[in-house]
């Protein structure tokens, strides 16, 4: 099972507009797509769509929170919800149908009741049966970055391996707790390592994380740096580096990184054929991650990928030693 933690969810609204978005102008969208979003729920939806056994753990509030809970139910995603005061945030993306170039408006959300946050963290400690726990996206306002490290440690205490996809201070804190898998984009990797080349950044991040895990007696980690059209660079726990590419593009990249992680975890958790040699598992999982990310980009709205299309694309992916 994959436990997808969503500490700061959102109703993500996606407008398709015929013209370039202009300040002061009236825009009449040709289509509106709304999903239970934020990075954590995007991961949950992508992994579930690909056949993964998924449970979302979400901190929700107000009318928006109830809409999200209903949407998860409608999508057959099991949800373990912690309710707090206030209102869950919303985010808006506007893009034209041809280029897909987005203009984005992301609410930060409301400050969370500390008691509700503690209940959320306790729910993570009570996870049962998860082989992977993903921690994705921002923390609610008022929650210190150190809470990301606490979530890593709580999830690990349940026996789950922990995957992290965050940014800034929250990511730095999570890295201090030495998760099993870190997935970042090229820009985030450059900030972390000072390496502008994605392969070098993935290797540097792996070396740093390996040292932290060695200090506390943990097995070797894996790191992934996604690089858009240049593909993704994976350093497996055994230290081997792989580059995965896919010669296909879509106009709507929003959520592709989340779908990548959802696809990767679905494959690692049994959503793809498991090779006889366990050391090859990471290499075998990379195509589904690439297929999920690209299928996501072909449809407006984060994490709304077609599973058959994702697997067709996965079969076309090229994975080579890097």
Automatic annotation (TrEMBL):
Q: Where is this chain compositionally biased, Basic and acidic residues type?
A: 98-111
Extract the signal peptide range. none
Q: Which InterPro entries match?
A: PfkB_dom, Ribo/fructo_kinase, Ribokinase-like, Tagatose/fructose_Pkinase
In this chain the Carbohydrate kinase PfkB domain maps to 25-279
List the keywords (alphabetical): ATP-binding, Kinase, Nucleotide-binding, Transferase
UniProt xrefs under SUPFAM superfamilies: Ribokinase-like
According to its UniProt record, which protein family does this protein belong to?
A: Belongs to the carbohydrate kinase PfkB family.
Name of the molecule in the record: PfkB family carbohydrate kinase
Top-level taxonomy: Bacteria, Bacillati, Actinomycetota, Thermoleophilia, Solirubrobacterales
């Amino acid at each position: 099972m994959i436990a997808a933690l969503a500490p700061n969810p959102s109703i993500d609204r996606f407008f398709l507009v015929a013209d370039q978005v202009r300040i002061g102008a009236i825009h009449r969208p040709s289509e509106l797509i709304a999903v239970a979003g934020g990075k954590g729920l995007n991961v949950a939806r992508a992994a579930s769509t690909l056949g993964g056994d998924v449970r979302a753990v979400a901190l929700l509030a107000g009318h928006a929170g109830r809409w999200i809970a209903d949407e998860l139910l409608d999508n057959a995603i099991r949800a373990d919800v912690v309710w707090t005061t206030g209102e869950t945030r919303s985010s808006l993306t506007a893009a034209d149908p041809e280029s897909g170039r987005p203009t984005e408006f992301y609410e930060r959300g409301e400050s969370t009741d500390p008691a509700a946050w503690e209940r959320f963290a306790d729910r993570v400690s009570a996870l049962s049966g998860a082989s992977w726990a993903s921690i994705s996206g921002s923390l609610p306002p008022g929650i210190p970055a150190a809470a990301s490290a606490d979530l890593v440690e709580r999830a690990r205490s349940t026996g789950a391996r922990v995957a992290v996809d965050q940014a800034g201070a929250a990511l730095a804190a999570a890295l201090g707790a030495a998760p099993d898998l870190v997935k970042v984009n090229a820009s985030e990797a450059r900030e972390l390592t000072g390496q502008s080349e994605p392969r070098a950044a993935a290797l540097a991040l792996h070396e740093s994380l390996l040292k932290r895990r060695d200090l506390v007696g943990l097995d070797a980690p894996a790191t992934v740096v996604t690089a858009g059209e240049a593909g993704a660079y994976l350093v497996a726990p055994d230290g081997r580096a792989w580059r995965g590419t896919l010669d296909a593009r879509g106009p709507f990249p929003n959520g592709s990184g989340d779908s990548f992680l959802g696809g990767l975890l679905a494959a690692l958790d049994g959503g793809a054929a498991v090779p006889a040699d366990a050391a090859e598992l990471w290499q075998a999982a990379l195509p589904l991650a690439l297929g999920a990310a690209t299928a996501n980009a072909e449809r407006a709205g984060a994490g709304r990928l077609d599973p058959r299309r994702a697997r067709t694309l996965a079969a076309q992916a090229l994975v080579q030693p890097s």
